[in-house]
Automatic annotation (TrEMBL):
This is 2-hydroxy-acid oxidase. Residues 1-362 form the FMN hydroxy acid dehydrogenase domain. Belongs to the FMN-dependent alpha-hydroxy acid dehydrogenase family. It holds the Pfam family FMN_dh.
Amino acid sequence: AIPPDLQTLADYERVAERHMPAASWAHVQSGSAATLARNRAAFERISLLPRMLADLRGGHTRLTLFGREHQAPILFAPVAYHRLAHPEGELACVRASAAMGIGMVVSTLSSVPLETIAEAARDAARTLGVAPVPLWFQLYLQEDRAVSAELVARAEAAGYEAIVLTVDASIKTSGFALPAGVTAANLPGGADRRQTSAPGGRILFGTRLADDAPSWDDVAWLRASTRLPVILKGLLAAEDAHIAIAHGAEAIIVSNHGGRTLDGAPSAIDVLPAMAEAVAGAAPLLIDGGVRTGTDIVKARALGATAVLVGRPQLHGLAVAGMAGVAHVAHILRADLELAMAQLGCPTLDRIGPACLFTRAS
Ligand code: FNR
């Protein structure tokens, strides 16, 4: 049962700490202190201008992305090793996403094989009598291109609907060692080779990641290697958005990786207006980093994002209550979003725009 004191994502974060081993908790929460704080502060700085007495009939939070209907502009961001938070790992998360109609991006570093996750999504949809939830596969390019190609082919065969190439992966090493029983289930030998080749037994995002960082040639290669839409995750510079579109990216996830990459990187929401101007409607922009409430989602939409992703809150929900916890986290966000939309006089997502933002000049 979900304890009654869990009403917000902040509540889940607070309680989750008690449900995870200290080392795993520290790993999940880690990031540059300055960037982590900025990810929240950037949302908190933005004011919204409520509107009264609007006609809210016919209101809903649905949107269409790559031809598929999503129940809300919220997706689960790719997060490695869900089994750090709960023994059912990604299976619990995908069942929650199926129940809530929230799309999920499955990490290359999932702790359950990508095929098993897709199968669980289909089973859940059958049981619930609903359409299968859209699943996207997140790719970390592997040292060996054949291994990357194999991952993409497996994702296609398993029914994933887009490839999310994460390009900001030169992540600081944390010295975090995976606990027994948690592996990179999609990769040969169950290990990220970049990790095992790192000195000092550093695990997860190993020290060679910076050297192996993808180049634009790899984006062109990926574009030519799959029939699925290619989405680039981890861009913050408007100029990179231009280059991404020129290389065939069909969407961009504006992200600082939850504050886990460059110390001092701006928050996604702060660079969003410049990104939106650069892309000029040529591709949907999604953002993540610090999204914790419905008003955060409204602010993202008002500044040009199509949808948002949430990372750590998935693990917080998993740690506290498994599938039910993740479903509850998604429900809180959706309920919160509807409330914010109603208070702004916006019964549908396309009504959310710059007019929802309060600026001193207005
Ligand atoms: C991540 N993130 C991530 N991104 C990715 O593309 N592949 C991955 O495997 C992971 N793994 C991962 C693990 C953990 C523990 C965290 C916290 C984050 C980044 C993730 O997709 C997303 O960008 C951020 O988590 C968003 O910020 P919030 O919602 O956590 O504030």
